[in-house]
């Protein structure tokens, strides 16, 4: 009788990057000329400002091969020491302005194209799809379509026009995500502070962590995580400002009846029900994230291959000087357990 293999330890788990993107030109070709696109582009330009747009365009063009060519991606992963990437569409593909017929075409094409990209190296690339949050009634079927394509879940933004993640219209989506065990990657795109952040790339440096904090607060304070404890939510950018300032949320929950009316427990306790990527750009902040959320709730993330990411995610993790067991858990053990990739 053959001897059973020993279980893989976290130290021997693959290095898994849960925050990596793919660019899908076919989606942009699909939406070109559709009503609403010009307005969305104008809003994006207004929020970012001309200086940021002048830098972002050439940056994306220079990184286009890594965003679209699987062979180039794999070579870059090898150079970084990354074994597996969880690949999500560029958030620029959300297109939350789109009407229902267009939105359905967008998510179906995104799922098929992302699945095809990952299929070129199925042992190393795992994919996520998209959900048109602007049309809550399409959310469940979009999630089901993503899973049917072999994707592990979907990527969502911090809000949709006129809707927060606490909106009751999303309840069927949360229920289905919990039921299926789908991964939900929370990655903001665009900050509603608008022109206040249109200089010095504040739209990203301040806007992204702000949007993360607001979105997670809606999930916590509204009771979404109480009603759906099985949700697997991964927050990009280390969850933004919320984990390091969660004490203020705890104080409000304890001191004010309006703040504590929607959720059953201290806000800080919900951090241990969420997952966070490690992309915080500061080893001291990463140590604090591990402390407040738990070493089992932090996953390696690079934002591959954009300039606001890191070219050396393992090195950035090592700089936090975690214990050996915590280092290997974040490097890949946690993600391997979460996605079943050994």
UniProtKB/TrEMBL annotation:
Residues of the signal peptide: none
Q: Which keywords does this Swiss-Prot/TrEMBL entry list?
A: Lyase
**PANTHER family xref list:** 2-AMINO-3-CARBOXYLMUCONATE-6-SEMIALDEHYDE DECARBOXYLASE, ISO-OROTATE DECARBOXYLASE (EUROFUNG)
Highest taxon of the lineage? Bacteria
Q: Which InterPro entries match?
A: ACMSD, Amidohydro-rel, Metal_Hydrolase
Any matching Pfam family = Amidohydro_2
Gene3D superfamilies xref list: Metal-dependent hydrolases (3.20.20.140)
This protein's record includes keyword tRNA-binding: no
Q: Which residues form the Amidohydrolase-related domain?
A: 16-340
Return the protein name. Answer: Amidohydrolase
């Amino acid at each position: 009788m053959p001897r059973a293999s020993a279980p893989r330890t976290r130290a021997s788990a693959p290095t898994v990057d849960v925050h990596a993107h793919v660019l899908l030109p076919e989606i942009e070709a699909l939406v070109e000329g559709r009503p609403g696109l010009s307005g969305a582009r104008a809003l994006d330009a207004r929020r970012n400002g001309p200086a940021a747009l002048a830098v972002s365009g050439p940056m994306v063009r220079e990184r286009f091969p890594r965003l679209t060519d699987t062979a180039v991606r794999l070579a870059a992963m090898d150079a970084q020491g990354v074994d597996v990437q969880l690949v999500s569409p560029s958030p620029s593909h959300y297109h939350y302005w789109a009407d229902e017929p267009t939105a359905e075409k967008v998510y179906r094409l995104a799922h098929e194209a992302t699945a095809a990209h990952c299929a070129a190296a199925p042992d190393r690339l795992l994919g996520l799809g998209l959900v048109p949050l602007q049309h809550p009634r399409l959310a469940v079927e979009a999630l089901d379509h993503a899973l049917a394509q072999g994707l592990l879940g979907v990527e969502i933004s911090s809000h949709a026009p006129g809707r927060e993640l606490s909106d009751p219209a999303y309840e069927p989506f949360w229920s289905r995500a919990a039921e299926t065990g789908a991964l939900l990657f929370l990655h903001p795109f665009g900050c509603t502070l608008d022109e206040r952040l249109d200089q010095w790339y504040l739209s990203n440096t301040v806007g992204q962590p702000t949007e993360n904090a607001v979105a997670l607060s809606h999930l916590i304070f509204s009771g979404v995580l109480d009603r759906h404890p099985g949700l697997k939510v991964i927050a990009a950018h280390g969850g933004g400002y919320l984990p390091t300032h969660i004490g203020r949320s705890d104080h409000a929950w304890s001191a004010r009846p309006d703040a504590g009316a929607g959720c059953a427990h201290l806000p800080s306790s919900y951090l241990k029900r969420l997952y966070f990527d490690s992309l915080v750009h500061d080893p001291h902040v990463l140590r604090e994230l591990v402390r407040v959320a738990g070493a089992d709730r932090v996953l390696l993330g690079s934002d591959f291959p954009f300039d606001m990411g890191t070219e050396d995610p393992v090195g950035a993790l090592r700089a936090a000087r975690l214990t050996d067991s915590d280092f290997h858990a974040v490097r890949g053990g946690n993600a391997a357990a979460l996605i079943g990739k050994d």
